[in-house]
Write a structure and sequence with these properties.
The chain is an alpha/beta fold. Helices cover 49% and strands 17% of the residues. The strands form 2 sheets. The protein has a 7-stranded parallel beta sheet, with helices on both faces. A 6-stranded parallel beta sheet has the order 10-9-8-11-12-13, with helices on both faces. Strand 9, helix 11 and strand 10 form a beta-alpha-beta unit.
Length: 395
C-alpha cells in the first residue's frame, strides 16, 4: 500500500485467561472486504456468542461488531501506488491509531481481510508488538500475480491463510504457511440474491464502473460515451448503472447530468446483482464484479484504467497474462480485456455490439462463464472460514 514500517512502544500480554471472552481485531479496507469480513464475523459470533470485536472495516462489519469497529472504507479504498502515496500521511496516522488500539484491546486473533498493501504491514507490526496474538489472513494477497518474494515474510508473520481460489492453496502451503481453501463467499451471496423467473433482456446494457470514487471518475465518462454510441446505433437499447453506495450514486448522477444522458441511462443504488441477471450484456470495471457477472451468466467486456505511473510499475511486477479474475481462474482468455488506452468508448461499444448482434456469441460465452464459476467452490465459505478462526480462538 506504500505505508512504511514504523517503530512503536507498548506490548501485548496473553488475553485468553480462564473465564474471559475471546477477542478479535478485524481489518478490511474496501467494500468487498467489508462484505466478506461481515459474513465471516456473523458466523463466528454464532459459534462464540460472547466474542468481542474491534477493528476497522465498513458498515456491514461495524453492524456485526455492535459499534466496536470503525467504518473507514469510503476513505481507505484507494487503488494504485501513486494514489496511495498522495495520501501517505493519512494512512500513516490511521496505522498508528489502529496499532495503539489493538495493543490496548489485546486480541486473541487479528483477522486481516484482503487489502494487502496495508494489512501485511500491519501484520508485521502486530507480530512485533503482540507476539501472542494469532494472525489469520482471509482472502489471500495475489502473490501468484506479482511479488512472490513476499512469501517468506508472510510465513513469518501469519499463522494461517484462508484462500478463496483452489490454485492459491499450494502456493502458500509449499512456502510453509498453514493454508486452507475455504471456497469463495460470493457463491452464497449470489445465490441469496438470485431472482426467480428472470431472463437476460437483450435490449438492456449494464454499466458497472466500480466501487471507488477515482475508479468511477476514470471509467464512467468513457462508459457514458460508449452508451451514447450504442444508443445512436440502436434506439431501442436501455442502459442502467448501479451505484455501490448513496455517496457514489451522487457522483455518478453528476457525471450523467454533465453528459446530458439522463434520459438514456438509469441510475440505481445497491442493485448490481439484480442488473447482472436482467441485462443482456455489460461493460464492467476489473474487480470482484467480474466474478459476480460470470456467476450470473452475464456476457461482458472488462475495462481497466489506472494512473500511468501505476500501470507502468504494475507491468514490471505482474507476471501473469491476464488481469481479469475470470480469465485468471479459467487459465485462459475467456473475457475480452480492454486495458488503459484500449479502454475507450469505440472499443467498448464494438465489443458490446458483438453480443447484441449475435445470440451465438452470447451463448458461447455464457457456457464458458458457467464452467469457470463452478471453480469457486460450494456454498458455506464463510462458515468454513469462521470455523478455521474459531479453532485458533479455542487454542
Amino acid at each position: 500500500m506504500g505505508v512504511n514500517d514504523f517503530w512503536w512502544s507498548g506490548s501485548c500480554g496473553p488475553h485468553s485467561l480462564l473465564g474471559m471472552s475471546k477477542r478479535v481485531y478485524a481489518v478490511a479496507g474496501e467494500l468487498s472486504g467489508d462484505a466478506h469480513g461481515a459474513g465471516l464475523l456473523r458466523c463466528l459470533t454464532q459459534i462464540m456468542p460472547d466474542l468481542e470485536i474491534q477493528g476497522a472495516g465498513g458498515p456491514e462489519m461495524a453492524e456485526v461488531s455492535k459499534a466496536g469497529l470503525r467504518d473507514w472504507v469510503e476513505d481507505a479504498a484507494v487503488m494504485g501506488i501513486w494514489e496511495v502515496l498522495k495520501r501517505y500521511d493519512w494512512f500513516k496516522q490511521r496505522f498508528t491509531e489502529m496499532l495503539d488500539e489493538l495493543i490496548a484491546f489485546q486480541p486473541d486473533v487479528l483477522l486481516l481481510i484482503d487489502y494487502p498493501g496495508f494489512n501485511l504491514r500491519f501484520a508485521e507490526a502486530v507480530k512485533r508488538e503482540c507476539p501472542n496474538t494469532r494472525i489469520i489472513y482471509y482472502i489471500s494477497p495475489q502473490v501468484w500475480a506479482w511479488n512472490k518474494g513476499r512469501l517468506p515474510k508472510m510465513v513469518r508473520f501469519l499463522d494461517e491463510m484462508l484462500c478463496l481460489f483452489p490454485f492459491e492453496q499450494p502456493i502458500f502451503q509449499n512456502a510453509g504457511l498453514k493454508t486452507s481453501f475455504v471456497g469463495h463467499p460470493l457463491v452464497d451471496e449470489l445465490e441469496k440474491d438470485r431472482l426467480d423467473h428472470v431472463t437476460h433482456d437483450t435490449n438492456l446494457v449494464g454499466l458497472f464502473p466500480g466501487s471507488r470514487e477515482r475508479e468511477i471518475a476514470r471509467l464512467f465518462p468513457m462508459m457514458i460515451d460508449a452508451a451514447m454510441q450504442l444508443g445512436s446505433w440502436n434506439h431501442t437499447l436501455k442502459f442502467e448503472v448501479p451505484a455501490a453506495s448513496p455517496k457514489l450514486a451522487e457522483q455518478i448522477r453528476g457525471l450523467i447530468a454533465e453528459a446530458g444522458a439522463e434520459e438514456r441511462i438509469m441510475l440505481t443504488t445497491g442493485a448490481s446483482h439484480s442488473l447482472m441477471q436482467r441485462a443482456g450484456c455489460a461493460v464492467i470495471a476489473s474487480g470482484t464484479a467480474t466474478l459476480e457477472a460470470a456467476f450470473y451468466g452475464l456476457p461482458y467486456c472488462l475495462v481497466y484504467r489506472v494512473a500511468p505511473l501505476t500501470y507502468l510499475l504494475g507491468k514490471m511486477l505482474v507476471k501473469i497474462p491476464h488481469i481479469g479474475l475470470v480469465n485468471i481462474l479459467a487459465g485462459e482468455g475467456v473475457v475480452e480485456e480492454l486495458i488503459q488506452e484500449n479502454a475507450e468508448p469505440s472499443a467498448v461499444a464494438q465489443s458490446l455490439k458483438g453480443f447484441l448482434e449475435s445470440p451465438a456469441k452470447r451463448e458461447a460465452l455464457q457456457a464458458r462463464l458457467a464452467e469457470t464459476a463452478a471453480k469457486l467452490g460450494g456454498r458455506g465459505a464463510h462458515e468454513r472460514a469462521a470455523h478455521a478462526v474459531a479453532r485458533w480462538l479455542a487454542d
